[in-house]
Amino acid sequence: MKRRDFIKLSANAALVLAFAGLGSPLYAEGNVTTPKTVVNLMLDGGPDFRHLIVPVYALNNNDNNSYAAKFWNARASLWRVSSTDDLKQAYSDNYDEVIISGEKYGILKKCAWLKDEITAGNVAIINNVIASTDRNHHHSQIVIESGDMNADVYNLDVSGWAGRAAKSLSANVLSLSASVRLVCNGPHSTDVRKHDNSCVISNYYSRDTGLVNYDTQADLDEGNPQYKWSEEGIMSRSLSSYYSAKEPHVPTTSIFRKPIEHEIKVRNFGIPLEERLNETPIPASIASLRERDHPNELDSSTFAHQIQALYDSYATQDILNMRLASLDYTGWDSHKNLRTQIEPKFEDIFGRDRGLESLFTESTLLKNDCYENSVVIVSGEFGRQLKSNGDHGNDHGRGNSMLVIGKGVNGGMYGDPFPEYEKEFLEVDNKDIEGKTSLFKVYAEVLNWQKNGLGTTVFGDLSSHDVENGVELGSMFS
After folding, report:
1. Is the four-CA dihedral 317, 319, 324, 329 of positive or negative sign?
2. CATH of domain 3-51+104-209+277-475
3. Which residues contact 385 (CB under 8 A, 6 or more apart)?
4. Distance, CA of 89 to CA of 343 (rounded, Å)
5. For residues 27 and 15, what is the distance between their CA atoms, to the nearest angstrom?
6. Residue 41: beta bridge partners?
7. For residue 402, what are the β-bridge partners?
8. What is the pLDDT of residues 336-372, one digit of tens each?
9. Closest alpha carbon to 376 in 416, 349, 414
10. DSSP letter at 477?
């Protein structure tokens, strides 16, 4: 192992050295049922969910005052057409139709898996949600990930709502993005302005966690006798021999005892993970998401990497004591060329044989019911304006929609996705979707599904936060 890689992996593993938070191997006991798990997927940049699900624009709709006509005309520049017939053709070419809560909507054809899950009743679509009240990406992400409407624009050191939830559950939150996001930060025991990440595991490099345990005989058996002379082999043998020889001679009171204990913990932590994953090959469909020129290769190799890391995390969930996981997908700031900017991203996440379908289809191989016992939250820090701009995109807006996906979800529309009063705004520049439901209320309800009362523990009193009239978030789960 190269020195810089050793340092990197040691830093990641240092997040989990509080062993009281690690689970015992349930697989060894024959108990493979996944505990209720929340997966948070943050779409950085303000995703336009109104490009994903749209009002039906039927060929026989000749009412120029209908919501559908005004909606499609307001967003005509996205399609680079202007005539009514061309807009109707764009709808027909790019959208399938799906029934949600008794009403017909169009859903992007590239998102066939999501359509299946909606039809199966596994997707709650919460509309008109809002958390941050400005259009600043950086501040909005701090607000949403900390769960604090009054979060300071510069303070990245506070705890995140997923970290607080993990701490309350005496469990861990797994960070599967390339770097640990604020949402994962655990609470500090004495200072609310700081955080403590003893409940966080950085698992982006899910098959490189821990330290290399060099096995000369295994390499010889595999016909690789030269490996022992490699840099990785030499470093592995040297480090393990050094720490093993040093350990008995370093007093517990010595300032050098901590790195000795650190090495032991990192090594012991990695061994059961390595053994489990050696018995759990990466499924071909998940591997293909990162395979260059494969038909299922994702537009984002980073997101594909996170999908594999989540699969590995489910495979080792009992060892890792994972109850929450954090993923991200960046690049949704679609001020120009929205179709080429975000359609591949929607397809990566929701398409046939793409991210989430590959993950949860292959997860049946783990035989631990992980999809049945998981909820996936998909949201962004804010949304997009109602009317497209002149650059075939659209600009920052406050209100948005979000998705809550899972077998235990009571699917349907929560809030009016296309309210009639918006018709007059669809012809006006710089108009936002009106925020009517606090995004934190939705997060809290998901956490209450995990454990009764957890939402209040994590977010505090949300009684002053709004919910759209007629929306019953408490009915989102069976």
Report:
1. negative
2. 3.40.720
3. 394, 395, 396, 397, 429, 430, 431, 432
4. 18
5. 24
6. 327, 378
7. 126
8. 999 999 999 999 999 999 999 999 999 999 988 999 9
9. 349
10. B
